[in-house]
Amino acid sequence: MAPHLSTFRALVAEQGAAGERFQLTVKEMNAQDLPEGEVLIRVQYSSLNYKDALAVQPQSRIVQRYPHIPGIDLAGTVISSEAPQFQPGQAVIVTGFGLGVSHFGGYSQWARVPADWVVPLPPELSPAEAMAVGTAGLTAAMSIDALERHGLEPSQGPVLVTGATGGVGSFAVALLAARGYRVAASTGKAAEQSYLRELGAQEVLSRSELQREAVRPLEKQAWAAAVDPVGGRSLAFILASIQYGGAVAVSGLTGGGDIPTTVHPFILRGVSLLGIDSVYFPLERRYALWERLAKDLKPTGHLDRIGSRRISLEQVPEAVESILSGQLKGRIIVEV
């Protein structure tokens, strides 16, 4: 059947009355409903990210127009392409750019996207494994890559990972351990110590140890670097505790957007704060990091450990509540 005659299922977010929760409903759609783009993809899997949960909250204003199909990640096969670099049947990944935010996303059996958003699926990964990684794993890989470009090496000392049971944190722990780093993992979930140690953490800290009521301009030097997808008040303590010349790669703000810090770590210890943006990260560097993720994680078995839970489109609304309440561990793969 020709693509323009076919229908497909998608999870659609629709805006209700002012201040009310958005409605999330699985609906039948057709190709004419999709936005413009050179590549039409049959989506097999997506994933659930904190940003996906925020996209269906009226107060977040992440999405500007509704009805909308969320999902900032997708993996599938090309149905048709106007771009010569992609052929029908080719396995591909799309993450970031406008997917699931300004452009219909991955919670849909079909997606049409610009060709310069598309990355070929590394042959070592299945589509499901790629979505176990998704934006979270890519962000972790970007964070470690930024720290290593800054000069980080395993011999320099332990690396702190905050929010360690979340998607970015879990992958950061596993990737750092696989590359020979000593990892200190911070979490608010005391029951998940064994999970973090299985991923490779040598030390597990309580979240409260980083959230000091009073942070001195400079604390005792504790870590060579940090991967921080949390931000907020704890980042002030982390910056004050990084070793001389070290760096913090920050990629999130679940702990808040304000940092009650001083300039002292930057001008007296030469500490650097490295911002990580997975949305517009250059395409040519994305594929190299996807290959690195496959090489470092595939042999460890951690892909299955981190992305062990799968849900259907119909189960996404319930899962959104779990991620917003901080109950999620690892990654959730959405079977489309």
UniProtKB/TrEMBL annotation:
Q: Name one GO molecular function term.
A: acryloyl-CoA reductase (NADPH) activity
In this chain the Enoyl reductase (ER) domain maps to 19-334
The superkingdom listed in its UniProt entry is Bacteria
| Protein's name according to its UniProt entry | Oxidoreductase
* Lineage of producing organism: Bacteria, Bacillati, Bacillota, Bacilli, Bacillales
